Amino acid sequence: MMINNRSLLIVGGIAAVAWLASNSLYVVDETERAVKLRFGEIIEEDIQPGLHIKVPITQTIRTFDTRVRTLDTDPSRYLTLEQKAVIVDSYVQWQVVNPTRYYEATAGDELMAIRLIQPRVDESLRNEFGRLTLQEIIAERRDDLMTGPADDLDSLMREELGVAIIDIRVKRIDLPEDVSTAVYNRMSSERERQAREWRAQGQEEAERVRANADRRRQVLLAQARARSETLRGEGDAEAAAIFSEAYGQDEEFFSFWRSLDAYRQSFEGDGNMLVLDPSSEFFQYLKSPTPSRQ
Question: Is the model's pTM score more than 0.90?
Answer without folding.
Answer: no
